[in-house]
TrEMBL record:
Entry's Gene Ontology BP terms: proteolysis
Domain Peptidase A2: 191-292
Record-linked CDD domains: retropepsin_like_bacteria (cd05483)
Species, as recorded: Collimonas pratensis
PANTHER family reported for this sequence: ASPARTYL PROTEASE DDI-RELATED (PTHR12917), AT13091P (PTHR12917:SF1)
Sequence similarity: Belongs to the DDI1 family.
Keyword entries, A-Z: Aspartyl protease, Hydrolase, Protease
A single MF term (Gene Ontology): aspartic-type endopeptidase activity
Record lineage: Bacteria, Pseudomonadati, Pseudomonadota, Betaproteobacteria, Burkholderiales
Protein name, per record: Peptidase A2 domain-containing protein
Length: 332
């Protein structure tokens, strides 16, 4: 009887905690597809610009094309950017005004990434420093990004759209790097994965793939050409079939996922190999890109350090996000 009473009291406390939760949607942004990525129109120094929500970028940054187009005055920076293409020179610039949606800043200083893949047609990366200061939902199917303010919701189930949504723990890479990382299992082997809306496809690092029993020489592995991003270089990519991929309660059997040396270009560019290797040691071993985001609805409940997600149907990996977004752009 005492055990039953304790269980009842525990359930009652949980129900009361849930009922007192107030989860306020204080901002919603409608995203638009441009060149395969989720973007929003914004303004810099009074000029219209295309901004991309990039959860894989540590900071909000301006691209070289925008800096040149707007004739921005640049200052040298002691920092540099690192991406799939290796290292990028980085500058800073001061903007009189910077805004998108209802958010606006005046007299703000932002970084400028100089070396990027020329196929990227956007002006600003809206990074983790803006995206992950509060709970945020990314729903590519609905073309929406929503921000929430929780109150007394620590014990509440927050996936309001789906009572059967899965969840897993999530954490920032570092106190000054708010990009979100989750634990996944590839062929049963644990790996860390970055949720990256700025990557067109999901990619597993070669080292993590090897731990899971897959190399570029494994049967059935197919060369795909090269991929790039931040940095001057493009790196070889392959597609491999794995036995399983798991995140939280979701398990995908026999997925075909891209593999690549995620940090090879950065290592080859570096003049300080030991320091670079130390910095890269704690970086994620997989990127969950726009293909994963298109097939799921996600809520980064940072107040709980949890990621809620629902599978929406369709192929999770390997389907071109550019094709999907082009189809969406053509739809009414």
């Amino acid at each position: 009887m005492a055990v039953l009473l304790m269980a009842f009291l525990h359930a009652a406390r949980a129900e009361n905690a849930a009922s007192s939760c107030r989860y306020t949607n204080f901002a919603t942004f409608t995203v638009k597809p441009i060149n395969g990525f989720a973007t929003i129109g914004g303004s810099m120094n009074g000029s219209a610009v295309a901004m991309m929500f990039d959860s894989g970028s540590q900071r909000t940054q301006i691209t070289r094309r925008a800096a040149e187009k707007l004739g921005l005055a640049l200052s040298h920076s002691n920092t540099y950017g690192i991406g799939l293409g290796g290292e990028s020179m980085s500058y800073t610039t001061r903007l009189d005004d910077f805004s998108f949606g209802k958010l606006a800043w005046r007299g703000v200083r932002l970084g400028v990434l100089w070396d990027m893949d020329k196929s990227f047609n956007y002006d600003v990366l809206v990074g983790a420093d803006i995206l992950f200061h509060q709970d945020v939902e990314i729903s590519m199917a609905n073309r929406q990004i929503k921000f929430f303010e929780p109150s007394a919701c620590d014990q509440s189930f927050l996936a309001y759209w789906d009572e059967n949504a899965a969840s897993t723990s999530t954490h920032a890479i570092a106190p000054d790097d708010l990009r979100q990382v989750v634990t996944v299992h590839i062929n049963g082997k644990e790996a860390s994965a970055l949720l990256d809306s700025g990557a067109s496809t999901s990619i597993i690092d070669l080292a993590a793939a090897a731990r899971a029993g897959i190399t570029t020489e494994s049967p059935g592995v197919v060369a795909l050409g090269s991929g790039g991003g931040v940095g001057k270089h493009r790196s070889q990519m392959w597609q491999a079939q794995f036995q399983s991929f798991a995140i939280g309660e979701e398990i995908i059997s026999n997925p075909k996922i891209c593999i690549m040396d995620l940090y090879g270009a950065a290592r080859s560019d570096s003049n300080h190999v030991a320091a670079t290797n130390t910095m890269l040691h704690d970086q994620p071993e997989m990127v969950l890109g726009a293909d994963f985001l298109h097939s799921h609805r996600l809520l980064f409940a940072l107040s709980q350090k949890r990621l809620y997600f629902s599978y929406l149907g369709g192929q999770v990996f390997g389907t071109s996000s550019k094709t999907k977004l082009a189809e969406e752009a053509a739809s009414p």
